[in-house]
Amino acid sequence: MSREFPTGLTPPDWLVRNLKPQQAPLSWAAMARAGVGMALPLALGLAAGRPDYGALASMGALSGVIGDTADAYRMRILNIAVPQLFGAVGVTLGTLAYGHGWYAVAAVTGVALVSGMISTIGAVASVSGLLLLLNCVVGAGLPLPSPWWLAPALMTGGGLLVLLLALLAWPLRAGVPERAAVAATYRTVAALLATAGTDRTEEYEEARRTVTQSLNQSYDLILARRARHHGRSPDLTRMLARLNAITPVIEAAPAAHLAARPLPPQIPEAVHHLARAVESDDTPLPALHLPLPTTETGRAVDHALRHAAEVVTAPDVDPRGIDDRLGRPAALGIRTARAARTVVLSANSWRYGVRLALCIGIAQALVSLILVPRSYWVALTITFVLKPDFGSVFSRALLRALGTVAGLVLAAVVLAEVPLGRWDVLVLFLLAPLIPALTPRGYGYQTAAITPVILLLSDILNHQGTALLLPRLNDSLLGCAIALTAGYLFWPESWHTRVGDRLADAVADTAAYVEAAFTPTPDPSGRARMRRRLYRDLSVIRTEFQRALTEPPPTGRRAAAWWPLVVAVERIVDATTAARVRVRHGAPPPSTSEIAQVALQLRELSAGVRSAETLTAVRTDLTGPSDSVLEPLRQEVAAARAIASPHRRSPATRGR
Questions:
Q1: Which of 73, 383, 17 shows the shortest CA–CA distance to 229?
Q2: Of 135, 176, 477, 609, which is most buried by a Cβ count within 10 Å?
Q3: Where does the record place a coiled coil (predicted)?
Q4: SS3 of residue 429 by DSSP
């Protein structure tokens, strides 16, 4: 029976979205690594008579557990080892600044500025910046054992132990995560084809979004390896070729859906056979029994499937003919230089760095003037809450507070009932797996899992038991308050979403894609890359939209108004792809004037979205022959223009 809340007591939507756990499978291997990686250093420290050394190494292992999120083994090296290096630098700087009063405040604030700026580069850089600041705060707030290099060595050693555990199966399972990811993409395409052409439109659109996410993940995994091994690894080359081969099938799906005729069940079943062949090279591919195509759409699907089957069964692939659909990665030195320029010249990088440095500076100055027992916890809370790529600052502050309270309940039981000593090893072995188990559910759940672990290790270092609970709660609430005020409320951009401007960019790119889709080009792979980037950008917009919905009014309400247009732009890209597929397989091509008219309307739509404050109907005067291949596209553009309004925004809302 569903539970109903009394009128007036129904929780707001943004709060429900924040508290709702995300669905994710349990990673038993990551849970096992967390238990062993964090408990083993503590056990060794106790055996050597130096439990404080073991606790520091376990703290380093905690950062490795947090970064242990990648499936591919090479990505695990980047996700764990690189942040450990930055963490070692951070704890060294903090240790050198410890006890130096306002010099320590200035040093930690400067590290916060650098940490915030490098966090805007990418995922690995973000975690690296996080550990740089976290460990600096710990080093500046705790009397760590001397000499100065001992604490960095212990903490880094704990993190590298987690990395070693994560790489143990590499010799036996090299390439398995990548093959599994590509096979999973094939299976999502099979689900997409099963819903194409049916009246289950919502299922089809959800399946298409799942395909986009799976395709992005697969390309990211493979291209991470390709940056070092392209042209030298036959297995990598085959995986990339197989991933490219499914793209024409994905492109044919919108045409099949617009035809409003369900595909024969043999077609999605054939894709499932291909997925099994991709996942295991030992599995032979059975003969494809596909029905004889009778339409342009049927021919497109049939041709794409047979091409994919040829690539999957091909014993060798010429690496010179492989295109990655996203552009070849530049050399490491070039990418490093680009990242450095991004950090130094980007206004967004400076803006976030200043926000983080301001909050950390306020926290460090405050605890220097007011006696706070565990002063470093305030800055640690701010560091976790004020992360641009981790979600809404408001929602993270809320979830941090709630997660801390929940974690303190468990920590109270542990600190009150478990005596110091060898029993701590067993408790840590049981608590640590909760971190990788609950982290995918949401930030509040991660905080609830980390809090008792941190307090257990702190008790080993300080021997204060349950006296740690109340200071931990007070410091976390103080850190959340500073982050909400100095890092959120005082910044106008916090009250506006970025969905509108990003969506305007996507509409403008869609106009360019419409022109390129029906224009002869010597570089067809460039057109495919354009489509892939469009879908990737729209996926990012969806993520930004979901993030904005967790904000309280009026920000969340403004973001919700953009949702119909996000869906409309996705349908425009689908309709363009479908029209191009039909032309490629026999439909009469559109005239140049038709293409120019649609592109012009899309650019007008882009300009209107960029300056829109509200969403109301505008003119939709697209005309053309009703039997043209572009007729479905014209209808989608008209529908999108019926949503957006060109009313000008005030300068104060430009940051949306």
A1: 73
A2: 135
A3: none
A4: helix
Record the tokens describing residue 582, joined without a space: 């039909």
Q: Does 78 fall in a domain? A: no
Q: Read off the tokens for 63.
A: 């950062």
Summarize pLDDT for 94-152 with one digit per residue, the tens.
Answer: 999 888 888 888 998 999 888 888 877 777 787 888 888 888 988 888 788 888 899 99
**Nearest CA-CA partner of 73 in 183, 164, 186, 184:** 164
d(CA 587, CA 632): 14
Please spell the DSSP secondary structure of 151-162, one letter per residue: HHHHHHHHHHHH
pLDDT tens string 428-441 = 999 999 999 998 88
- C-alpha distances out from residue 15 to 20, 408, 635, Å: 9, 22, 37
- Residue among 417, 241, 205 nearest 324 (CA): 241
Tally DSSP H helices, then E strands, for the chain. Answer: 29, 0
Domain that holds residue 219: 171-321
Q: Is 484 helix (H, G, I), strand (E, B) or coil?
A: helix
- Total residue length of the chain: 656
Closest C-alpha to 556, from 129, 8, 16, 3: 16
Tokens 């689900």 belong to: 191
Is 578 inside any structural domain? yes
User: Following CA atoms 191, 550, 560, 654 in sequence, which dihedral angle do they give, to the nearest 10 degrees?
Assistant: -120
What burial class does residue 473 get, using C-beta atoms within 10 Å of its C-beta: 0-12 exposed, 13-18 middle, 19+ buried? middle
Q: How far apart are CA 261 and CA 313, in angstroms?
A: 30
CA-CA-CA-CA torsion sign (609, 591, 257, 180): negative
In the chain, which residues have pLDDT < 70? 1-15, 18, 172, 224-233, 281-284, 315-347, 372-375, 387-392, 492-498, 521-525, 552-559, 612-627, 644-656
- Residue showing tokens 């869609």: 510
Boundary of a domain, candidates 321, 336, 368: 321
Pairwise CA distance, residues 5 & 642, whole Å: 37
Cα distances (angstroms) measured from residue 203 to each of 208, 256, 386: 9, 15, 36
316 found inside a domain: yes
In whole angstroms, what is the distance from residue 211 CA to residue 573 CA?
15
Residue 137: inside a domain, yes or no? no
DSSP code, position 630: T
- What is the tens place of the pLDDT at every residue in 320-378? 445 544 444 444 455 556 656 666 666 677 777 888 888 889 988 888 887 766 667 88
Number of domains making up the chain: 2
pTM of the predicted protein model: 0.74
Q: What is the SS3 assignment for 228-259?
A: HHCCCCHHHHHHHHHHHHCHHHHHHHHHHHHC
- Rounded CA-CA distance 83/131 in Å is 6
Last residue of a domain, one of 296, 321, 346: 321
Position 229, amino acid: H
User: How far apart (Å, rounded) are the C-alpha atoms in residues 97 and 100?
Assistant: 6
**CA atoms of 432 and 456, how far apart (whole Å):** 11
